[in-house]
Design a protein that fits this description.
single chain, 258 residues, alpha/beta, Undecaprenyl pyrophosphate synthetase, 6-stranded parallel β-sheet, globular, binds 3-methylbut-3-enyl trihydrogen diphosphate, binds magnesium ion
């Protein structure tokens, strides 16, 4: 059997997931429950981002990936979209200095070509300013969609490897993987979605193939160290089998990767 799948090996999993990916959902409902406009929930959500980033650093998480704006979120009312963009700009302007001081590397993934030039410039600068940091990589998925990712990776792969476009070419998972937007990180160990919905909403479709899923009713503005601990408690007792039997994984064939 050829070993060309990232799911062949069970990642070494100490109690703490190496890579946590979160759908930050429920900002609007948090605000509505308080008779506040939805945008107030988004503003409060920024505080939860700050708290969660710190909690992940404290716990020794290496990669934290946050879904901030999906390729489908353009369908929202124009004023909400524009507020979300302004909030994104504000966060980058205000928080990057602190991230830099705290050893956090910031990355933004998604189709940023749709953003206004000022935001694109700010994204480039923020990534450059934190590029030499190693404590934790914080990835913000903005105008990201899992289907967009697979398509852009396929196009990039075929541009680089025209031989793979030929009929019958033996394309493997390992051929495509380097072109995916998050190829710099191991695949997520733990996925968290706040806000009570139990769906993926076009987040990291390829990368979540064997990720442990955790859903909580807590709205995103209420998320932080305490809620993160609950998710980690749930993760700790999971048995990751990657297709094998329980007896097989009891004798670990762990090979650290990345
Ligand atoms: C998540 O909260 C934030 C974004 C999608 C940008 P929502 O705005 O989706 O909040 P709900 O789901 O309507 O409560
Ligand atoms: C998912 O939340 C996207 C982000 C959190 C950025 P949504 O609130 O947009 O998801 P759906 O549309 O309800 O599934
Ligand atoms: Mg929502």
């Amino acid at each position: 059997m050829t070993h060309t799948s990232s799911t062949d090996q069970i990642p070494a999993s100490p109690g703490i997931p190496r890579h946590v990916a979160i759908i930050m959902d429920g900002n609007g409902r948090w605000a509505s429950a308080r008779h506040m406009p939805r945008v107030a929930g988004h503003s409060k959500g920024v505080d939860a981002v700050r708290a969660t980033v710190q909690a992940c650093v404290d716990q020794g998480v290496e990669f934290l990936t946050l879904f901030a704006f999906s390729s489908e979120n353009w369908r929202r009312p124009a004023d909400e979209v524009s507020l979300l963009m302004r909030l994104f700009i504000m966060v980058l302007e205000r928080e990057v200095t602190q991230m830099r001081a705290n050893g956090i590397r910031l990355r933004v993934v998604g189709d940023t070509s749709a953003f206004e030039p000022a935001l694109r410039k700010l994204i480039d600068e923020s990534q450059a300013r934190t590029a030499s940091n190693h404590k934790m990589t914080l990835t913000i998925c903005a105008n990201y969609g899992g289907r967009w990712d697979v398509l852009q990776a396929t196009r990039a792969m075929l541009d680089a490897r025209p031989d793979l476009a030929e009929a019958g070419a033996p394309i493997t998972e390992a051929d495509l993987a380097p072109y995916l937007a998050m190829s710099f990180a191991p695949e997520p160990d733990l996925f968290i979605r706040t806000g009570g919905e139990q769906r993926i909403s076009n987040f990291l479709l390829w990368q979540l193939a064997y990720t442990e899923l955790y859903f909580t009713d807590a709205f995103w503005p209420d998320f932080g160290a305490v809620e993160l601990d609950k998710a980690f408690d749930s993760y700790r007792v999971r048995e990751r089998r990657f297709g094998r039997t329980s007896a097989q994984v009891a004798v670990p064939i762990i090979t650290p990767e990345h």
